[in-house]
């Protein structure tokens, strides 16, 4: 992923949001850049729609930016203290045929998932 | 079929519908009815009524009858099983070996899992008979069940209205008495909100209480599986079967599982119920009236009502949509047309340029996902991206900590916190689809429990009145739409939650009211 793909000038956009209480609307190029990161092909009408809606949603979420969180640790999950470790032992699992059974284009004899050409 | 059988079956279709879990199981264990009889009736009623509701994506009649026959064949083996012969439905985001599991998405519309979710094995070990998979919002994203690739589910109380989401099919199936119980999943209210809007009981257990293995992931730090039932007692029976550690889910908790049915003593004397009054701003007047009346009932049973302050609760909805979309964008990266599910073909009309691997990924996702799922993947990708991560995702996680602390502080002084489940009763299908923010605001009271990992339950607490005007719904005048009371408790203390909810249910008749007969209207 080339870094300039996401040259969305983050700071000015964020500053505009903070200053005016609403985000600057997303441009089509910005939406296309996000879609490329998400491996999502969008048509022109979807780009227009999401440019508006993502702006609306982030305007609504803007109140979160105003809260003082100095020194507050982030919560990624509430599972602290749960026993996550178990012995590393071989367990029964799907055999190759079962694992391939739901694939759109399995190569059953070879035991592979087949995909379109990757190189050249 | 002899004449008597035919009459019984006709009555099941036309009349009252299935009993509760406790009634069905007791009748089977007492040999008053056979599991096959019960199953046949449930399937006949589903056949007659589901076309009006669209509650099921898949019905597995033959599989269910074969299973019921097995249970009838070995009565001794199933004598003490808590769900022996009880027909159940499963939200279609729970993997069922050999039975199509779609998450209501085109992406998985032909996916047949090679394994069962842990909850499915647990229910079957307890004697349950799965009759089908219920409709839901695509990948459990939505608040109205309008985001399904298989069309919206209709509310049994008013067919032109939403059943709530995302477990809308499960709520509708239980409300219409198609099955006594259905499983749902709850990432931001997806069990409790449809339960409230359909007039049934919905329980979201503590994060970690029930294994998530085999649940199609939406937002992994928030997702939890739980039951929708008609009574609190049934919710207690179901949780006893579902709860407990699972080696296949590293986030499942080792906490001991108490006898939830034994906890239903009816005694709430001395129980302290916290009410975050300041947070109720902007709710529908009828919802407010119903909640106040419900709290009076609990007070008259001996509970103490206490004001509590949750200063950060009002930020829960935006925090939820930043955290959940970030997690969803990551979880849904797996749908790329390689290992399972839909794959876009090279000759699709939208194509241009070479059909290489990258194009296959992005075209598969473009054609396989619906609009709400794409919107959330886009938002989640954005908030996780370089330059924005700190401002959105990290900030949201910090505010999540503040919300969690608010609840922990409140629950240090009170046993449960009470509030509405939904700010309004069921809105009309199509009423809010064009504005995502308006749709997201329907989750304002439910998302906190997920962010804080707390258990929460919704119980029916009244109906809207005919002629009353409801927020954002000026046309409504027919009344008769269910309202839900939500109770939230301490982590792993579902027993207290169920005890309070059951005590409330004992003094009220809301749960006993059936929706209007569906085929005759």
Topology (elements, then pairings):
The complex is a heterodimer of chains A (120) and B (521).
Chain A: H1 10-20, H2 28-37, H3 44-61, H4 96-100, E1 106-107, E2 112-113
Antiparallel strand pairs in A: 1-2
Chain B: H1 3-14, H2 21-29, H3 35-53, E1 56-59, H4 61-73, H5 75-78, E2 87-91, H6 118-125, E3 129-134, H7 168-175, E4 181-185, H8 192-198, E5 201-204, E6 225-229, H9 232-242, E7 272-275, H10 285-300, E8 304-307, H11 316-331, H12 357-368, H13 371-384, H14 390-413, E9 416-420, H15 436-440, H16 447-452, E10 456-463, E11 482-489, H17 494-506
Parallel strand pairs in B: 2-3, 2-4, 7-8, 7-9
Antiparallel strand pairs in B: 1-3, 4-6, 5-6, 5-10, 9-11, 10-11
3D architecture notes:
The complex is a heterodimer of chains A (120) and B (521). By secondary structure, chain A is mostly helical. Chain A is 37% helix and 3% strand. Chain A is built from four helices and two strands. Chain A has a two-stranded antiparallel sheet with strand order 1-2. In chain A, helix 2 packs across helix 3. Chain A starts with 9 loop residues before the first helix and ends in a 7-residue tail after the last strand. The relative contact order of chain A is 0.09. Chain B is of the alpha/beta class and 521 residues long. Chain B is 38% helix and 11% strand. In chain B, helix 11 packs across helix 14 (390-413). The longest helix of chain B has 24 residues, at 390-413. The two termini of chain B are 29 Å apart. Chains A and B meet through helix 1, helix 2 and helix 3 of A and helix 11, helix 12, helix 13, helix 14 and helix 15 of B.
């Amino acid at each position: 992923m080339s870094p300039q793909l996401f040259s969305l000038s983050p700071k000015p956009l964020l500053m505009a949001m903070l200053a005016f209480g609403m985000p600057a609307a997303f441009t089509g190029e910005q939406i296309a850049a996000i879609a490329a990161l998400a491996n999502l092909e969008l048509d022109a009408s979807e780009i227009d729609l999401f440019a508006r809606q993502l702006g609306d949603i982030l305007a609504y979420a803007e109140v979160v930016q105003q809260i003082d969180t100095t020194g507050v640790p982030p919560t990624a999950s509430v599972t602290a203290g749960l026993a996550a470790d178990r012995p590393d032992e071989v367990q029964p699992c799907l055999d190759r045929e079962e694992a391939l059974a739901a694939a759109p284009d399995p190569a059953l004899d070879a035991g592979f998932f087949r995909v379109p050409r990757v190189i050249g | 079929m002899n004449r008597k059988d035919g009459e019984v079956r006709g009555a099941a279709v036309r009349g009252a519908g299935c009993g509760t879990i406790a009634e069905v199981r007791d009748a089977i264990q007492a040999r008053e009815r056979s599991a096959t009889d019960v199953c046949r009736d449930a399937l006949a009623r589903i056949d007659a009524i589901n076309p009006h509701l669209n509650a099921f994506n898949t019905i597995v009649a033959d599989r269910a009858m074969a299973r019921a026959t097995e249970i009838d064949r070995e009565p001794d083996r199933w004598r003490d099983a808590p769900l022996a012969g009880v027909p159940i439905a499963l939200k279609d985001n729970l993997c069922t070996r050999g039975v199509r599991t779609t998450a209501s998405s085109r992406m998985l519309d032909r996916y047949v899992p090679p394994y069962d979710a842990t909850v499915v094995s647990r229910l079957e070990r307890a004697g349950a008979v799965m009759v089908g998979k219920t409709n839901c919002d695509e990948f459990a994203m939505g608040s109205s069940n309008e985001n399904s690739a298989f069309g919206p589910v209709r509310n049994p109380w008013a067919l032109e209205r939403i059943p709530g989401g995302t477990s809308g099919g499960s709520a509708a199936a239980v409300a219409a008495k198609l099955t006594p119980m259905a499983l749902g999943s709850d990432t931001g209210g997806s069990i409790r909100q449809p339960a409230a809007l359909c007039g049934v009981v919905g329980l979201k257990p503590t994060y970690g209480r029930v294994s998530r293995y085999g649940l199609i992931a939406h937002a992994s730090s928030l997702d939890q599986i739980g039951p929708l039932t008609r009574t609190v007692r049934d919710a207690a029976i179901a949780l006893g079967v579902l709860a407990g550690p699972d080696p296949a889910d590293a986030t499942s908790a080792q906490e001991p599982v108490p006898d939830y049915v034994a906890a239903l003593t009816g005694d709430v004397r001395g129980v302290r119920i916290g009410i975050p009054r300041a947070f109720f701003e902007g709710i529908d007047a009828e919802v407010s009236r119903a909640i106040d009346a419900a709290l009076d009932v609990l007070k008259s049973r001996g509970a103490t009502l206490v004001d509590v302050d949750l200063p950060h609760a009002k930020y829960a909805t935006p925090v939820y949509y930043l955290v959940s979309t970030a997690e969803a964008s990551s979880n849904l990266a797996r749908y790329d047309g390689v290992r399972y599910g839909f794959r876009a073909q090279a000759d699709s009309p939208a194509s241009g340029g070479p059909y290489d691997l990258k194009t296959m990924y992005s075209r598969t996702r473009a054609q396989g996902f619906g609009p709400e799922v794409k919107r959330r993947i886009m938002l989640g990708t954005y908030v996780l991206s370089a330059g924005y991560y700190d401002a959105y995702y990290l900030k949201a996680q910090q505010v999540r900590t503040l919300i969690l602390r608010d609840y922990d502080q409140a629950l240090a002084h009170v046993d449960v916190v009470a509030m509405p489940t939904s700010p309004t009763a069921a809105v009309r299908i199509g009423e809010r689809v064009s504005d995502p923010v308006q749709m997201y605001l329907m989750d304002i009271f439910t998302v906190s429990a997920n962010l804080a990992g707390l258990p929460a339950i919704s119980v029916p607490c009244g109906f809207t009145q005919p002629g009353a005007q409801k927020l954002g719904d000026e046309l409504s005048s027919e009344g008769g739409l269910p309202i839900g009371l939500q109770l939230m408790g301490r982590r792993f203390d579902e027993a207290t939650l169920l005890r309070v909810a059951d005590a409330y249910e004992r003094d009220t008749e809301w749960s006993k009211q059936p929706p209007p007969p569906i085929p005759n209207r």
